[in-house]
């Protein structure tokens, strides 16, 4: 439906006091623009979004013309780490499919926790393709992923989005690009440390590591430690909490298997 605008200019407007010739020309030009105005059928894509879609995106010719500067960081060290992070993302089995993302937003509409995320899954994929590593790492998207696989089931491009989120977290740890100060990150770090050490999950050690990691960011500091102490002792007396976690039978063999898998993974990426 065409939009109608009142472009009528009063006849005595130009002769009113204080109206300069430049203002008169500007008013007449605006009137001509509004007279021929029609709703935009195809909005212009933002520069960053166009680059994120990639040059092969159908229906977005602007992406073929725009050339944005590469990611800028303060020091060469973070720049190299960010570049290595992107390389490993695209080298992963599911990361290669990020380039096929249609940016339809089905994943964001299907995600039950998208409202609590800094960036939706669709926006994270767009940021990766635009080489905006800082935006990906600063957001809480990959840490809030509930692993419900609703996005994976509904993705029209067949991208295993949940697996990509796991890869992003793993690579962030590997390249030491994890941002501190988030409870979700401290939770993931604490669980990973416990499993790496004993091969199984230990509730007491896991909670102790998590509380110590988040105590400094609380107001007042250590509030959770004071609250959880009596509760933990009561659970121990009831036999609901055992302070000594069970490890795998052969911990040395377990660590050797982890190291062997890490080396094989590195050789596969290099080869």
Characterise the protein shown here:
- The protein is mainly alpha-helical and 271 residues long.
- The chain has two domains: 45-179, Fumarate Reductase Iron-sulfur Protein, Chain B, domain 2 (Orthogonal Bundle); 181-263, no CATH class.
- It is built from 13 helices and no strands.
- It has helices at residues 21-35, 47-53, 76-91, 106-110, 121-129, 133-138, 141-144, 150-154, 161-174, 183-198, 203-214, 223-237, 251-270.
- Helix 10 runs antiparallel to helix 11 (203-214).
- The relative contact order is 0.07.
- Residues 3-9 and 36-76 have low confidence and may be disordered.
Contiguous low-pLDDT stretches (5 residues minimum) are: 3-9, 36-76
User: How many β strands by DSSP?
Assistant: 0
Cα separation of the termini: 58 Å
Helix content: 40-55%
Assess the beta-strand content as a share of residues.
under 5%
Question: What's the total helix number?
Answer: 13
Count the domains.
2
**CATH domain topology of the largest domain:** Fumarate Reductase Iron-sulfur Protein, Chain B, domain 2
Rough outline? globular
Radius of gyration: 27 Å
Largest sheet descriptor: none
* Structural class assignment: mainly alpha
Mind telling me which CATH architecture of the largest domain this is?
Answer: Orthogonal Bundle
Oligomer: single chain
Mean pLDDT: 72
| Secondary-structure element pattern, one letter each | HHHHHHHHHHHHH
CATH class of the largest domain: Mainly Alpha
